[in-house]
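pinned: reference chain
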Amino acid sequence: MTSNEPMIRDFRPADAEAVAAAHRAGREHLVWTAEALLWANARQNPDEHFRTIVAELDGRVVGAVRCGLTLGTSTTGLGHANGSVLPEFRRRGAATALLAAAERHLAAHGVTELHSWLDEEPDSLAFAAARGYELGSAAHFGERDLTLPLPPAPVRPAGVELRPATDWADDPRPLFLVEAEAIRDEPGEVTMDALDYEEWLQGDWARPDLDPALTVVAVVDGVPAAFTLAQTDGADRYWSAFTACRREFRGRGLSKLAKLESLRLAAAAGYRHAYTSNDTTNAPMLAVNAWLGYQRCAGERKGIKRLG
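pinned: its structure tokens
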């Protein structure tokens, strides 16, 4: 193998900083830390067959792809692969080799339909199209400067409390039940109708970048009805990972209240940049984020490919 050809291999713990840097390069709206990457590769669900594959050029880790089977849905044969290469090392075959390795890995474990998020930029979309990917759903990223004033809080309905997720540290199942119901209604090609509690505990609740103190739960008459899940880089960047509301409590502004309170707490804790993402068809949440002061900063498209 010459120095002009990428070396493709499995992730090693020493790669974490370089892989995280490649993931964030040109994508300030993505909050993904080396610590979270190490955690994702250390925790192994045998049903997911999760794998991070890296590319080296000239002895340097220049990119990676993270891939696995899609869990939480009753639809079989679905997989995901998302990756990136440092801008200065693109067009040297690393992205092509990484994607091919991910496709082989997933096909070997029964994946017949692969989903990948693509930057909504001409080069990224053309790269995917040339490799057999068709475009699916679209999403918008929003950015919010937390040093600027937040809107005043609306009047809180009677019987509604806003509490941190730390209150459920010993038994988070009530929060899982909120997410398991709400995620069924998320826009997109995959219906998430089979969320598993143990997988949620290990794959969401146990994330090292989850901040339960900034994750705010709207409680109605003592029952968790909605929440907004907060992840951070531990420095100055905040990510709104998921906002959920049970069907019977929708239309009361609970998601707005939870998101506003979470942003208020994040600003008070010293976070300066807040980011979020929404499907372009999710009009209610896009309206909430516009009210909160988020401004569109980037977009992405779902790429879908049949394998085998």
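why pinned: Residues 91 and 211 are 38 Å apart (CA to CA). Helices lie at 16-24, 34-42, 94-108, 122-130, 173-182, 197-205, 254-268, 283-292.
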